[in-house]
Amino acid sequence: MRRWSTAAGGGAADPGGGLAERSREWVTWHLVGGIGLAAVIAWCFQAQLQPIREQHALIAAVMAAVRRERAARGLDIEG
Q1: In the predicted model, what is the mean pLDDT of residues 28-40?
Q2: How many domains in the chain?
Q3: For residues 6, 7, 8 and 13, what is the CA-based torsion angle, rounded to 10 degrees?
């Protein structure tokens, strides 16, 4: 649904489109919608940073435990 509304807003803001006489009315709405969606994406990205860091730390801890266990058993250790 959001794609359709974005596409419709973009099409309505196109001065060469079918709504050429009213395109000025849609330019600002299209700009505000685009900036608003970019802000939502930026917020979502920022919200995911801490969980990603926590997962990275967990994976690093598991990999260290695997290396220790492989070394204790005399197996090859990669990297």
Answers
A1: 92
A2: 1
A3: 90
